[in-house]
Each structure stands twice: as structure tokens, then as C-alpha cells.
Design a protein that fits this description.
This protein is of the alpha/beta class. It is built from nine helices and five strands, in the order αβαβαααβαβααβα. The chain has a five-stranded parallel beta sheet, sandwiched between helices.
């Protein structure tokens, strides 16, 4: 495990943090609609959307040594080490060519959060928290027709419990630092996105402004 941590730190220290990327954590219970809203943010504001779960699944599918290790851990009911997920996130961020990222469904717990900041030396610009009543999320999950195996009432309720016990403390931590932007996700998709736009648009302008200043500085230094 130690070698994974050190390797992840070495990969991060020389590149990612120096680029000062804008990172937004996207959190919310299962069925809160964050996937739909992430797609809207990507389309309107040019962020790259990274789902920790999708990256783990893609790594397993690749058949790599790392993927086999992840698959075996999941089969044995073990939690995949934070550093493994973080390394996949880092790689995806570096390969994207972008400097604005939505990280969806991560950090799942306080240990994830602390490891991400320690390894990458990056803190999120803010956290988008999609707040939705459990009854509404349950209704949405049961009515959607994606055919996911985990969309049954018993599994759904277990997922709610895990979110409340593990992920909510992460939201509370960032809230204490003034970084949480809470959105009422029980409303229709369009209304929710209007709230999202009001939060993301000003940040997007800041990022653009930083880019303009950086380019100007670079030009001046060349003369």
C-alpha cells in the first residue's frame, strides 16, 4: 500500500498541482440527478466530467494488472484503496488536456477526501451538493429504466444509508470551510440547472480571467 501512495504522490507533485486546475466535487445521494446536471455543465461550461465509479469499471474492463487487482478487491468485498482511485483520477485529468473538472461521486468518505488533498495537493474550488429527500430519490431510482442491478428497494436503501454515514461528513467538512453550494435537487431538471448555472457561471469567468492573465504574463516574459 505504501508504494501506491508514494507512486501517486510522485505522479501528482510534478505536474497536476502546478497547472492549478479547477476541481469541483459533485456530491449527492443516489438518484439526486447529479449525472444529468454534470452532463449539462460539461455542455454549457466546458468542464471535463470524471466519475470515479466509471474510471474503476473502465480499468477493470481493460484487463490490466491494476484492473485485475481492483476486480479481486471488489469481489472479496474489500474497499478499493483511495490512492488507487486517485491515481486513476489524476491520469484522466492529465490526459484530458483540460483544466476544469467535475469529480462525480468522490470523495465518498473522509478518508478519500484527506487522501485526495494529500496526494494531489489540490483542494476543490467548491462542492456542488445536490440535496434531495430520500423518498424522492427512491421514487426516481425505482422508476428509471436503466436496468441497473442495484435499482431494487433493498439495495437502494442500503446505498442511502452508506451515503448518510460516509459521504455526508465530507459535505459537512467542506461546509465548515464555506465551500459547499447546496442545490434543491427535488425540482424539475431545468429548474435545478438554472440554480447550477448561477453557481458555476461566475466561477467559469474567474477561470477564463486567470487564463487571460496567464497568457498576458507569458507574452510579457518573452519580450
Amino acid at each position: 500500500m505504501g508504494s501506491i501512495v508514494e507512486s501517486a504522490k510522485q505522479d501528482a507533485n510534478g505536474s497536476l498541482a502546478e497547472k492549478k486546475p479547477t476541481v469541483v466535487f459533485v456530491l449527492g445521494g443516489p438518484g439526486c440527478g447529479k449525472g444529468t446536471q454534470c452532463a449539462n455543465i460539461v455542455e454549457h461550461f466546458g468542464y471535463t466530467h470524471l466519475s470515479a465509479g466509471d474510471l474503476l469499471r473502465a480499468e477493470i474492463k481493460s484487463g490490466s494488472e491494476n484492473g485485475t487487482m481492483i476486480q479481486n478487491m471488489i469481489k472479496e468485498g474489500k474497499i478499493v484503496p483511495s490512492e488507487v482511485t486517485i491515481k486513476l483520477l489524476q491520469k484522466a485529468m492529465e490526459e484530458s488536456g483540460n483544466d476544469k473538472f467535475l469529480i462525480d461521486g468522490f470523495p465518498r468518505n473522509e478518508e478519500n477526501r484527506a487522501a485526495f488533498e494529500e496526494v494531489t495537493k489540490i483542494e476543490p474550488a467548491f462542492v456542488l451538493f445536490f440535496d434531495c429527500a430520500e423518498e424522492e430519490m427512491e421514487r426516481r431510482l425505482l422508476s428509471r429504466n436503466q436496468g441497473r442491478e442495484d435499482d431494487n428497494i433493498e439495495t437502494i436503501r442500503k446505498r442511502f444509508k452508506v451515503f448518510l454515514e460516509s459521504s455526508l461528513p465530507v459535505v459537512e467538512y467542506y461546509d465548515s470551510k464555506g465551500k459547499v453550494r447546496k442545490i434543491d435537487a427535488a425540482r424539475p431538471i431545468g429548474e435545478v440547472f438554472e440554480s447550477v448555472k448561477a453557481i458555476v457561471a461566475p466561477q467559469n469567468e474567474k477561470v477564463k480571467g486567470y487564463g487571460r492573465v496567464l497568457r498576458l504574463t507569458e507574452c510579457c516574459s518573452c519580450t
